[in-house]
Design a protein that fits this description.
heterodimer, A: 2 domains, seven-stranded mixed sheet, three-stranded parallel sheet, about 45% helix, B: mainly alpha
Chain lengths: ~375, ~350
């Protein structure tokens, strides 16, 4: 019995030690701790790994230049496999165990919303640079800042751009996901159609996780569509492009930035030739993109370089944004100060990778302007289109 | 041959928990569990809460799989039904958690009859596929029922106050989960020692003989589905309160497979096994992470950057090793260890 009491006492003591309080909020005299939680394994790894690598380049570049007011960035990255319940635990670890100052990456909409109550409770600033679903920012949350382009207005701008390059007799159709993201895209599409008086033959909604799109594309053909605005992500766009080619539909597929990665061109093959994409980050072939690649070659391994895509640029921009806010806090850095400085970010340059970033106390999303590219299968890259 | 003592008195057969030693062990565990939220940080507390919630679900799942012998992959579906039911009642209708959780159990129990009734003649793989289909259908219905579930956007869960105690505190939630687990254990223990439990065991061991002996197999199978799902649904309600946000991605098929692995690793048919299995499987990834971090170097970063893949490999290995070397699970292993210690240095 005494032995069992001794064991229990030891167990309680060990657990008590784990509860020791830490006074710092991710800041020491020489370090600033930043954290992120995204999918480094599983289907979302294509996005998460690229984002992580972009952040790595930015952090290394800043550290090489002396850090932020003399403090070097130390990053903590967790794999949540794109599952919201795992994101909550990952963020809890980042905040409680790693004691990070801010969170610069979160998997997606559901993961961000799941982790938000915890981050709000602890006053941790959070960035979301990869997804801009309205539900995250409406109503706005004090500690959550988004960078990118809202899907609705972005789709409107995209359709207007496409309309400027298309014959007036074109017949338009939108294929969107049956969820809030799809709602945003659809509303943007319908707004553009109404404003420009375009001929829309309909909006088709597909189920999340759907892999096969023959029904949707056949329907588009029956309706005589010549411009297909896709609100899909990655795999769905590949399926659509291949189906368009298979049935011989003479239509242009236009996709949003979520799927604009080099791997998509490989997957679509020749069927992807001529697919037009909109994005708020530039292309690696741009001058700014080439400057980023030069930095990436300095700080990443050869294997890591092969995993870069547009999400690397969003990760890079996220670190620049956070670093700028931290820098403006001077030596007295705290989570509350970083949030206050993020709110007043004005015309922050991202080295040409995006348009300048702006936030206000009332606006938690830095709406960026779009650029447009077309898939070139022969070159295996996205070629910029003139505006 | 090892001598075993069998209960010979009616009191022994109907006792809820056996012996003074077991009561002392349970009291000690409860004392440690009750003190835990006051001595650990919220990260450890989060894991402890998850263990309790998983244990509640596992105790319920054990009724169906362990006691009735019905192979089920429907855990994710019943868990989701309970989670959304409780979340909807608390968040949209402002119900107290004291009402919402039992209501979630009732809803999950009733829904389970939709699976149970068509599955009465099914066994083994066929039943597993049917319950698997239920989980898949549930996920699709969650997406379709947007006014109730929020669809793909999900549902934020408000933690209501209970007797004036603010439930937004993680500590308060942990204690609620602990109370629910104790109640679930008492509930399951009572079923086990009652005629219901004996009927379920009879169905599991030899359904034809049970029918011949006058056991209403249809009624007891449906009862097993309902009771099991009700407890799982309550666990789902607690899960929603823990996360404070529900999304269909939290109820993927892997949840059902994890539930099966928990009851197998813990010890099929045992309440203690369900709890031990929950503790083991929930903490296994974290223990692996700490081990990798302790090893340091490049291995230290492996878990952080490849957590889900490493976790998947470890889970698979653990299940294979247990099925091969300890088919009676952790409970069986502890019993053998205890017997070996008591017998030492004798072999028998």
């Amino acid at each position: 019995m005494n032995h069992k009491i001794a064991l229990l006492t030891t167990a309680i003591a060990a657990l008590a030690l784990s509860g020791a309080a830490h006074a710092q909020e991710g800041v020491t005299a020489t370090e600033i701790k930043l954290g992120g939680s995204t999918a480094l394994t599983g289907p979302g790894a294509l996005v998460g790994i690229a984002h992580d690598l972009g952040e790595k380049v930015a952090a290394a570049e800043i550290n090489d230049a002396g850090g932020i007011n003399g403090r070097k960035i130390v990053r903590f990255f967790e794999d949540d496999g794109y599952v919201p319940s795992r994101t909550v635990q990952a963020v809890r670890k980042l905040v409680e165990i790693d004691q990070v100052l801010g969170i610069t990456a979160s998997s997606g909409t559901a993961s961000t919303i799941a982790a938000l109550p915890l981050a709000e409770e602890k006053g941790v600033p959070m960035l979301q640079t990869a997804a801009q679903n309205t539900v995250m920012f409406n109503p706005p949350h004090k500690n959550l800042f988004g960078v990118g382009r809202s899907y609705g207005p972005g789709t409107t701008d995209f359709v207007k751009f496409l309309a400027g390059r298309t014959d007036k007799s074109a017949k338009w159709i939108a294929v969107v996901q049956d969820d809030d993201y799809g709602d945003d895209v659809q509303s943007g599409y319908e707004k553009a159609v109404k404003e420009l008086g375009l001929t829309s033959v309909g909006v088709l909604r597909y189920k999340r996780g759907q892999k096969e799109f023959s029904a949707e594309i056949v329907k588009a053909k029956q309706l005589g569509a010549t411009m297909i605005v896709s609100g899909a992500i990655i795999g769905e766009n590949v399926a659509m492009a291949k189906e368009i080619k298979r049935i011989g539909l003479n239509a242009t597929l236009a996709i949003l930035w979520s799927g604009r990665i080099p791997q998509l061109i490989d997957l679509m093959g020749e069927a992807g030739n001529g697919v037009i994409a909109a994005d708020y980050v530039g292309e690696f072939s741009d001058p700014a993109g080439q400057e980023f690649m030069a930095k990436a070659k300095k700080y990443l391994t050869a294997d890591e370089l092969t995993k870069l895509n547009r999400y690397s640029l969003t990760g890079y921009v996220g670190i620049l944004l956070m670093a700028d806010a931290i820098k403006r806090c001077g030596q007295e850095v705290s989570r509350a100060c970083v949030i206050a400085k993020l709110e007043t970010t004005k015309d922050l340059s991202t080295n040409g990778l995006t348009s300048p970033l702006n936030f206000t106390p009332d606006s938690r999303v830095a709406e960026l302007s779009l650029s447009y590219t077309v898939a070139d299968f022969a070159k295996k890259e996205w070629v910029p289109l003139a505006k | 041959m090892q001598a075993v003592s069998f209960p010979t008195a009616h009191a022994d057969l109907t006792r809820l928990i056996g012996g003074g030693r077991q009561w002392a062990l349970i009291a000690a565990c409860l004392a440690v569990a009750a003190c835990l939220p006051y001595v650990v940080n919220s990260y450890v507390l989060g894991y402890a809460t998850l263990v309790l919630i998983t244990a509640v679900g596992a105790v319920g799942f054990n009724i169906l799989v362990g006691w009735t012998g019905l192979v089920s992959l429907g855990y994710a579906g019943f868990f989701a039904v309970g989670a959304y039911a409780a979340a909807f009642l608390m968040t949209k209708w402002g119900w107290s958690v004291l009402l919402a959780l039992p209501a979630a159990g009732v809803v999950a129990g009733l829904i389970s009859l939709l699976v149970g009734i068509p599955s009465l003649r099914l066994k083994g793989l066929y039943l597993a596929i049917t319950t698997l289909a239920f989980s898949v259908i549930t996920n699709h219905l969650i997406l379709l029922a947007k006014p109730i579930t929020g669809g793909s956007a999900g549902l934020r869960v408000v933690r209501p106050t209970v007797f004036g105690i603010d439930m937004t505190s993680d500590r308060a939630l942990y204690l609620i989960c602990l109370v629910v687990l104790v109640m679930a254990i008492l509930f399951a223990s009572n079923i086990r020692r009652s005629h219901v439990g004996r009927a379920l065991f009879a169905i599991r061991d030899y359904e034809v003989a049970a029918r011949v002996l006058g056991v209403n197999v249809v009624a007891y199978k449906l009862l097993s589905f309902a009771l099991s799902s009700a407890v799982i649904g309550i666990a789902g309600g607690l899960f929603g309160m823990h996360l404070r946000y529900l999304n269909v991605e939290s109820f993927e098929l892997i949840l059902s497979i994890e539930a099966v692995s928990i009851v197998i690793v813990g010890g099929l048919g045992s309440i203690a096994g369900a709890i031990l299995g929950s503790v083991f499987m929930v903490l296994l990834p974290e223990m692996a992470r700490l081990t990798f971090a302790f090893l340091g170097g490049s291995l230290g970063g492996v878990f952080s950057s490849n957590a889900q893949e490493v976790k998947g490999v470890i889970f698979g290995l653990v299940i294979i090793l247990f099925l091969r070397f300890a088919p009676s699970g952790l409970v069986g292993a502890f019993r053998r260890l205890g017997a070996a210690i008591r017998r030492w240095p004798l072999a028998y």
